[in-house]
Amino acid sequence: MKTRAPVTTPHSHEVTSTDREVSAFLAKAQAVPLRTDGGRGRLVFAMDATMSRQPTWDRALAIQGQMFEETARIGGLDVQLVYFRGFNECMASRWVSDPQALAKLMAGIACRGGYTQIRKVLQHIKTETERAKVHAAVYVGDCMEEDVDLLCARAGEIGLLGVPMFMFQEGHEPRAEAAFREIARLTKGAYCRFDLNAAGQLRALLSAVAVYAAGGRQALADYGRGNRTATLLLEQLG
Questions:
Q1: Which of 105, 111, 132, 201 is most solvent-facing, going by the fewest CB within 10 Å?
Q2: What is the model's pLDDT at position 221?
């Protein structure tokens, strides 16, 4: 999964979000197929770990780690962590079933300068699901520095394999937004801004995706009792 990548300088973005964007994210999820196989769920969680994300990295890791705690009570979820950073570095963890083990894996990652490597992430998801079904993929990032047409070609292949991608963007970089929205469309997934200023709302969205990957419709229905975000997601999936 390694290719050469030149180093870029750090940059930052103001992070905001709106209820309209969250509603749009949930609405896009209506195209995601429901799980019917009854087996263990497999979720790929991919992160941009380049230096542009350093200012908000610790807080983002805490929120991302908490999403998997919601799946512990129902079990049945295997998660693989994928991240890229620095010069040539794009790594995938082993598949993990213990949420605490995943949190430890995340905590050991530090940001390093470098260009984005989203294409390698998409290729990895394609390769993994050709080996054994991946039920959903989450991607969190803030920018895109690659050929968008090449990314869309890979995303289309993932879409044909039935893997919805839930694309979370930190900040407002326009090229990233356009690319992330198109990847979500091609995979029948959804796009939303990664709003660290609305941690509870973001955690609910991430958790609902994780619960869906773990147990499909019924697990999401059980989780949705008393949880407005999960209930809305369930309604859109219905």
A1: 132
A2: 72
